[in-house]
Queue: 4 jobs
Job 1
Amino acid sequence: MHLADFELGMMGANGIVGGGLPIATGAGLAAQMDGGDQVR
């Protein structure tokens, strides 16, 4: 089962080993470009 809650900042899980890296990179870049304080 793959769970995600975008309102809490939980991007979910990926069943592929190493598959979460592109998701985390994109989420971090989006948060940084959005001006949020999730990425420092």
Job 2
Amino acid sequence: MAEFVGMKVGEWFAFYVLDRLVSKVFSYFSGRCDLLKGVEDMLRDVEDRLPRIRAVIDAAEGMPVRDPALAKWIAELKGAAYAADDVVDEFEFRELHDRSHQRGKVGELSSSAHKLLAHFTFSDEDLIKSLKNLVENLDKIYADIGHRELKLDQYRKDKKEATAACRETSSFMLADKVFGRDKETQMMLDLLLSAGEPADGGGATTCSSAAGSSSGPGLAVLPIVGIGGVGKTTLAQLIYNDPRVAQHFQLRRWVYVSDNFDVKRISKELVHGGIADPRFVDISLDEALVKVTDATRNERFLFVLDDVWDERGIKWKELHSALTFGSKGSTVLVTTQSPVVADLMGTVEPIELKCLEDYDYWELFEHYAFGDQDQLGGSKRKRLQLIGREISKKLHGLPLAGKVLGTLLQSEQEEGYWRSISESEWWKQELALDSILPSLGLSYQHLTTNQKQCFAYTSIFPRGYEFEKEQLVHMWIAQGFIQFDSDQRTRPEDSGNRMFDELTNRHFFFPTMHNKFVMHDLIRDLAVYVSLDECYVVSEWPAKFPATVRHLTLNTDNLDVLRDVPKFQRLRSILFFREYDSSELDEILEGILKNLKSLRVIDLSHSGIQIKKLPDAICDLSHLRYLDISCTGIRQFPKQFSRLCHLQVLNLQRCRFKKIPEGMNRLINMRHLYAGAETIALIDGIGRLTDLQELEEFRITRKRGHRIGELKD
């Protein structure tokens, strides 16, 4: 068998950036014959080579790659593209500098912009030197392209292009239909709806006989156990949202747990239902558990703990101690893949979900593959059904696989397309590695190139993390993943929202109970796989950072990991997902920001960081576009913060600022400012931020920059 290396993602980004580099440099040097002469030949060479580079990218993009040398070549090409992206950024800074300088009458904004841009930008000689180094690197990559083309011949023969157009979608999600689970559903409803009711003298129901009576004293814990993708969460959602269940229980909460059984976080969500509460930021674990006890005392509650992995049970015992004061019939519903967890936590016999039987599975698959489309002719539908049955048999009764692949097939109901899915090399056993279901890989392959990049980036979130649509779209835009037509007055946010809806419609993202979204574990495994270590979540020590990492999430409180981060100077994203309480953190964060000059995304909102002031080094991050310091103790900006001209998103929610440095109105690319009214009122001349898309609250005064007329743009 051929060695299976992996799938490459984001090659479209390499071509897009290189093409953009050529046009940007020509535009910048036009009219400067002395400088253009030095770079024109280099650019013409790059321009001439782009079609051949594109041909190799098109052949390799999204396909399984068995050749390590080919994988290495594409990685080098992408590395060059990232370097080119930084150079393009510098040219954009120079153009902004020149435009502000040429306005003639230099007002406060333009003169200040001129000074701060001068701090950042290279001289023309530096720019040309960077460009030459980049082109030399591209020369080396291009010299090896002939070998790559030969290797790709086999992929070209097998590859079937995804020709289906993306269907129009919306953010409104229809409730999932559940197939083949009638027996389990009725058992669970019988158990829950009898919870807390007086026992029937005529004897227990069939459900109670199997699972034990829940009308007795103590907390009932009902596990749903089964392998990944079998439908545990879907069944739990069906039960949770049943109107009879909603009426029966006085308090209901849903918490996605995953492999991090964080008792304090879970307690917060049980009390507040996922709604952020600043009073929970600085409290101890004991105080959090007391709040859970107070919230549940004498209440009949139903809590769902989804996707639990804690097989030791220590943390569950801590949480359990706070859940024993509810009314009779209170129940915790647990979904898990682990029989150990089910045995450890359960007080009643677990509901064991098996893969669906053939009849039920075909009903599910047909629902997603054909939908409600009655326009298909009888003979055509029969032919598609024959192919569909071949495909459904390869999915082994897993509902998740049926939903994802069925949705893909519904997008193009042509025999040739369905046959290409049925005969794809993804079904070969040699490719079914690392728990990646072939059906999911197939669905990924048939995404557009742009969708692939956005999907892979989502692996930057830890397993089980519930993310907001707006948050992820802003991150995509910050990384340059969203293409939009400025001439057609299309906002990047609109393009990003459509991208998000398309991925959600294909079941790559699932909505949660908190108006957020999450990736199923198997879907996230695929995202991690296709990112090939460009996105990396550190959760333990010692950590082995891959050399290719560009987007890093720190899900560990080990400071030694943080001290290693400055070595990876090519990082473009850094997210902190653990709370830190150390006097050394100020110095460590300063070192990180001082060395990572290519950062475009920084998120400190989950860190609970209590330093008073953002480090001065952040002012030198000329590429920074997204900064989230919400829910931190930061109260002061560096004086030169207004240097960050590329900054598009700034989140200051639940931060307590008493003073904002002058010049914040010079952040002329700011599109989204999330802050309380008190903080916004501190920003002088906020009306000059004409790219702002919205403000949650704006206090109108007679002061310049705060008049109602200044919000007209």
Job 3
Amino acid sequence: MGTYQYPNLTVIEEDDSIKVRIMHLQHTIVAKFPNHQMVYISIHNIQRAIQHQYHASIDVKDISTCGPDLLIHMRQTTTYSLMLASGSLDMIPISLSLMPWNAEYGSTKVPAHTQLADSFNFDYNKIARNMRKPAKQALILIDAIPAHLCSDTTIKTLLQKLCDVPEITFDRPNHTYQVSAKTHCIENIPSVAHLGLKKIEAGQAFIYIWPIWLEAIDFTSEDSLILESWAEEEAAKLARQKLAGYISSADTFPADYGEHEGDINDLDDTAYRSSVYPPLHSSQVPYADAVTTPNACATINDQVLQSRWTRTFQIANQNSEKIISKIALKNVRLLHLLLRV
């Protein structure tokens, strides 16, 4: 029987930055809810309970949620030891069990050779872009990243084959990420994925694997798709006009033709589209609304939409002639010879 393959697995190597974060997380306590008893408890409730039961002060910034559990970072060594010796934090109507945090908490350990190096073995975003699928603006919410793996580098590695990531926001109290992204394959962004950390122990490679949750919210308006289609049609029309002008001219080419010959290969269609369609920032799409409001797309106000229309037409007008001339110079020699045959 084959070994279980964790779906949508991204594996990262343990490096010095991860080791530093592990060191900073010393004296962190995991507070767990009783089985099947999930109730809403704010970080201020936790703060007051610690002050009341252990007569110790703690900053609310040192309390956060991570998946179904709470993380409490105690800076006072004495209080840290006292809380673990007690083993519980009394709340009303429940009591939270306390245990020390470690870098393997919540993970499943498997030999490295049993898993594929990268389950995202297809670059979905590149494939979809080459198929001319339209780019979409998305807000991706990511939950349950292990505390010591929380970094922009981890998020970019996780999403590198699914979207372009211009902006990342970390919500520390909730241990969640909000990613402003541009993607050609929003339908390929999974709701459940796995993050693995590869470590060498006693000369053997192991992977510690955690489940993580993603939610991709499409914030692309229908107007943006219409504008993109219009821009492509106008570019094609200008290209035909430009090519017709070159072909009807004499049997000579511009003196700097050779200098332009390689330019078209360097033209980054992704960068051009990104400049035409600037990403929405998290300030324009409040996280709370994105999670709790069914029609979260309505949070994009008229001013944002109007600025995107204006920016689209400005960039298209500024860049169309340059792009068309490069395309024409690249292909005019071949077309000219074909027409003479």
Job 4
Amino acid sequence: MWKVGRYIKEHTCDMGTCRDGHFNLDVEMIANVLRVDIEKTPKFPIKDCQTAVLKAYGISISRRKAYLGRKRAFEKVYGTWEGSFAEVHGSFETLQSWNNS
């Protein structure tokens, strides 16, 4: 059995070593920040996404992470292509059953 003791040394983690922002700042967190902006402006620019995350968390993110966050925020607001297609397909089946009657 072991016991956790105190770690007395100074914390040496440097945010400058994280190339694409903080490791725990994932796409879901970025999407939550961008959701309101995506509702207002569906074509919200990537550069503005990066700026919004920088203002919210104080962390710079890559263009790729900003793109993925914007895409996820868009899906949260408007749904996915697959979901939209499934709804249209279901509507066509209903329409077809009404027309065959």
